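To close the section, here is one more complete example, presented without commentary so you can practise reading it yourself. The ligand is 3-hydroxybutanoyl-coenzyme A.
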Amino acid sequence: EMAPEERAFQERVDAGQKIEPKEWMPEGYRKTLIRQISQHAHSEIVGQLPEGNWITRAPTLERKAILLAKVQDEAGHGLYLYCAAETLGVSRDELYAQLHSGKAKYSSIFNYPTLTWADIGVIGWLVDGAAIMNQVPLQRCSYGPYSRAMIRICKEESFHQRQGYDILMKMVEGTPAQRAMVQDALNRWWWPSLMMFGPSDDASVHSAQSMAWRIKQNSNDELRQKFVDQTVPQAEYLGLTIPDPELKWNGEKGGYDFGEPDWNELFEVIAGNGPCNSERLGARRNAWEDGAWFRNGLTAYAEKSAARGAA
Ligand code: 3HC
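Output:
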């Protein structure tokens, strides 16, 4: 039986109204939003590392400039999302501490290595493609600050996906070695990209409640299916083979049947045992420590100017 204020809240959500920071909300709604928004922000920040590895190795100045712009966008996406999380009463320092201690999650996809330049094309195409599939519905999230952050972020994501696909179009028109490099990257990134959408619906602990609160608009499997249906023709256009022997068009359902991702791999990577987890967290911890002098300087300056102002 719902308490009156909870019922009123649910009626607002069901009516498609946006919930704003100062309005009443169930404690569970606040907690699950801090959980999801902070993990989303951590994903943006950690997601800069795999691509950053290729900024100094980009094949042309133009590709370097594009990759720089994309990585910089990701930093901005992280900032929008940390700000959205702060409106729920959590400090940024707390969120960073949760990431650096290994307590907070971030998207599993960023724990894989970027071995060749083709990986940068495949990341733009598949990882940002999956992110777009997942983020477009989040623009309609019931929590105001999160949905507004998503609207801004989605505007920039289409460029991210486009530039990745453009890299691949160039490479598949190149030498056989370049085509093989692209196929190798697809083989390594296909299944981890499907895992970005989360566990299957029957294993998803948050979906039911998140959908009732209009945080999540579609289930994990629904978005994964849409992503596969949209991406297979793009792979065919590039002359690539999707590394899934069970992939087959199903006329009845109007979509592709495809194999099961390796859920054990997903849970292992989430548990911190992926190929690059310690390297990624190490890089973030080092960045935090290396930046301490700068943060301390800013704080000292702010205190001095506040004291001067008060004097
Ligand atoms: N990587 C890491 N953790 C994952 C995961 C993944 N691929 N999939 C699921 N999880 C975690 C969930 O966070 C949850 O753990 P928690 O309770 O400790 O938070 C647990 O596994 C069970 O999963 P659920 O399906 O029950 O959890 P959700 O309802 O939260 O659904 C989600 C998972 C779809 C990822 C959802 O949290 C979400 O939409 N998050 C916001 C968007 C996001 O983070 N997208 C991935 C990164 S996009 C990106 O980085 C931007 C681009 O620039 C690349």
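Once you have examined the tokens, check your reading against these statements. The chain has a mean pLDDT of 97. The longest helix spans residues 144-172.
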